[in-house]
Amino acid sequence: MNNVSNRKSIEDVNVSEDEGGKFVSVAALIYAYFDGLHYCDVETFKTVFHPHAIYATADQTPMLYRQMDEYFDVIAKRQSPASKGEVRKDAIDEIKFAGENTAFVSARCSIGDTDFIDFLTLVRTDGHWQIMSKIFHMKEAA
Questions:
Q1: pLDDT digits (tens, 9 = 90+) for 64-102
Q2: Model pLDDT, residue 104
Q3: Structurally, how many domains does the chain consist of?
Q4: Are 134 and 116 in contact (CB under 8 A)?
Q5: What residues contact residue 102 under an 8 Å CB cut-off, 6+ apart?
Q6: Is residue 5 part of a domain?
Q7: For residue 105, what are the contacts with CB-CB under 8 A and spacing of at least 6?
Q8: What is the pTM of this model?
């Protein structure tokens, strides 16, 4: 369950069309994504990820590739970092736009003893941004 109640919902900020509005909408989506990771909140993930999104890393052999139903099952079974008292460590490094409906986000987070660098591609459909792909690098935390 997402325990962050002081943030606006994704729907509240996700329909603006000006440049600043696009940036705010994408940043809000990514912070909701970070919330989903920290609390292992599948319902949040169902909102931030497009139903046809992919999840992949080449840092495992064989390469790890999942569709959303598989990824959501993993999240549902995982003990959340929040429940273990982990301090949340996440950041957005870059947001880029390619037109009105396509964006790229480079983000970082740490879960347990692992640091992640996420390359997230986003699409906007019906005025709402969603993650279409999560390609990530992982390494042992420094």
A1: 999 999 999 999 999 999 999 999 999 999 999 999 999
A2: 98
A3: 1
A4: no
A5: 121, 122, 123, 124
A6: no
A7: 26, 30, 92, 94, 95, 96, 118, 119, 120, 122
A8: 0.85
Residue 2 lies in a domain: no
Residue 3 lies in a domain: no
Half-sphere exposure of 93 (CA within 13 A, CB side): 10
Sign of the C-alpha dihedral computed for residues 10, 68, 2 and 93 taken in this order: negative
CATH number at residue 124: 3.10.450.50
Enclosing domain of residue 77: 10-140
> What number of CA atoms fall less than 13 Å from residue 120's CA on the CB side?
28
pLDDT digits (tens, 9 = 90+) for 10-58: 454 444 456 688 999 999 999 999 999 999 999 999 999 999 999 999 9
Q: What is the largest CA-CA distance in the chain?
A: 43
- Tokens 């992640």 belong to residue: 116
Token pair of 95 as six digits: 């947001």
